[in-house]
Amino acid sequence: PDPVDIPELAERIESLAIERSANVQGRVLIVEDDAELAEHYCLVLQAAGIEAQAVSEPLHLMASLADFEPDIVLMDVQIGDYSGVTLARLIRFEPRWLSLPIIYLSSEDDPENQLEALSKGADEFLMKPVSDSYLVRSVRIRCFRARQLSELMNRDSLTGLLKHSLIKEEVEKELARCRRSGYRSCVVMLDLDHFKTVNDTWGHSQGDIVIRTLANLLRNRLRETDMIGRYGGEEFLVVLPQCEVSSATELIRGIGESFSELSFVAGESSYQVTLSAGIAAINDFTNGEDALNAADQALYERKRSGRNGVTV
Ligand code: GH3
Ligand code: MG
Ligand code: MG
Ligand code: MG
Ligand code: MG
């Protein structure tokens, strides 16, 4: 084979990465008590298509984080009576924000002081004064990187679907959206039938193929706005926004039929797998947990009454 042209390859990868980071619409929370400066940063970033929000009051910091869900935080070193180092520690205290990049915007050039700040949970320094164009470009790159990493953390590695805790959160969020906007949505729990037999008969790696195939089928057949997660081993959880129970039932029944018609090939043999599903209308419940339990109960009924199908 031809030897790899490393410089050329590196150049191609580089240009791809830059192209992709140019498309990222990042979200930046600016923690800055100088109102004029905060507004300047916000405007510069917003003009470049980046969503930016400023917080000047340390007491509002945690609420702003939860509401805005930024990709990165730009932190002043001194905010009122508080040091940025203290605020970084506060942010890191919450497990949810352990991996959130915190970047100090600072004129601190004493390496010892910088190290002290880094040791308290910040990730790096951006030296003030920073030019508008450098700010935009470096923020864009950092948001791109932050999103790559959070994708990696939030996605199940076998299927690329949302992990358990993330999809569970989506049920709760969807219920809140239903309340605000008045539309109706469904939650669906799916489970492969007799999957233990698939593993026992055809082997675990065949089982993995079956799981991945169902994940791809769901991705292909559902809408861009539907949310799909791998709830457990061979269990999937789907949130269907703005969808009546009747349409959800029809949709999932169709997917189940398509799935049951697939032939999985193992050496000279082939086999089929079916799935069972339980559906609940999110709106009928006062919290996401209850909606989930109802879908789970419906799934259980379906398993008891013969599998391969949908129960509401
Ligand atoms: P039922 O129709 O009642 O759902 O029966 P089942 O055999 O599908 O259910 P059970 O809960 O008894 O078994 C599920 C099996 O799924 C057991 C477990 O080894 C297997 N499993 C879980 N995660 C994975 C995975 O990532 N890959 C593979 N290949 N198998 C998995
Ligand atoms: Mg300040
Ligand atoms: Mg089971
Ligand atoms: Mg099963
Ligand atoms: Mg199961």
Automatic annotation (TrEMBL):
<keyword id="KW-0175">Coiled coil</keyword>
<feature type="domain" description="GGDEF">
    <location>
        <begin position="183"/>
        <end position="312"/>
    </location>
</feature>
<keyword id="KW-0902">Two-component regulatory system</keyword>
<dbReference type="GO" id="GO:0000160">
    <property type="term" value="P:phosphorelay signal transduction system"/>
</dbReference>
<feature type="domain" description="Response regulatory">
    <location>
        <begin position="27"/>
        <end position="143"/>
    </location>
</feature>
<dbReference type="GO" id="GO:0005886">
    <property type="term" value="C:plasma membrane"/>
</dbReference>
<dbReference type="GO" id="GO:0043709">
    <property type="term" value="P:cell adhesion involved in single-species biofilm formation"/>
</dbReference>
<protein>
    <recommendedName>
        <fullName>diguanylate cyclase</fullName>
        <ecNumber>2.7.7.65</ecNumber>
    </recommendedName>
</protein>
<dbReference type="GO" id="GO:1902201">
    <property type="term" value="P:negative regulation of bacterial-type flagellum-dependent cell motility"/>
</dbReference>
<dbReference type="GO" id="GO:0004672">
    <property type="term" value="F:protein kinase activity"/>
</dbReference>
<keyword id="KW-0597">Phosphoprotein</keyword>
<feature type="modified residue" description="4-aspartylphosphate">
    <location>
        <position position="76"/>
    </location>
</feature>
<dbReference type="GO" id="GO:0052621">
    <property type="term" value="F:diguanylate cyclase activity"/>
</dbReference>
